[in-house]
Specification:
It contains five helices and no strands. By secondary structure, it is mainly α. Helix 1 (2-36) packs antiparallel against helix 2. It is elongated and about 70 Å long.
């Protein structure tokens, strides 16, 4: 029965994908707990970021993009098993790159604005920067 084998293969791949996703989420939670267990503010921030990311994942534009690709693949006779996974992987990669660029830019601005000032003058300059709104 050639049709039965294709269904079993699809089910196996689907179970493997869900297993991977569940394990990755558990690993992220354990990693955050191990890394931030001594600082409840950072642990809370990590949990907040995770929950906001889950909420962001079901935004209408994301669902529409995944739905459009899924429908197109079905029209072409293909199985759209990993469309959402690769959409999420690509989206999170762009978010991480943007966050890294922002962190690098803030660090470079802090060095150029503060330079090698003594700590007291550095704190005063930071207060002025915050008051002016240049962050």
């Amino acid at each position: 029965m050639p049709g039965r084998r294709a269904v079993t293969s699809f089910k196996t791949r689907l179970i493997a994908l869900y297993t991977l996703l569940v394990c990755a989420n558990i690993a992220a939670g354990v990693w955050a707990f191990v890394l931030f267990s001594d600082d409840p503010v950072k642990l809370g921030t990590a949990m907040l970021a995770y929950s906001l990311g889950l909420r962001h994942a079901v935004d209408a534009d994301h669902i529409a993009a995944i739905d459009n690709v899924t429908r197109k693949l079905i029209q072409d006779g293909e199985r759209p098993l990993t469309v959402g996974f690769f959409f999420a992987l690509g989206h999170s990669t762009i978010v991480l790159i943007a966050a890294g660029l922002i962190a690098f830019t803030v660090g470079a601005l802090a060095i150029s604005l503060l330079g090698s000032l003594p700590p007291a003058r550095r704190a005063a300059r930071l207060n002025i920067i915050e008051a002016v709104g240049v962050e």
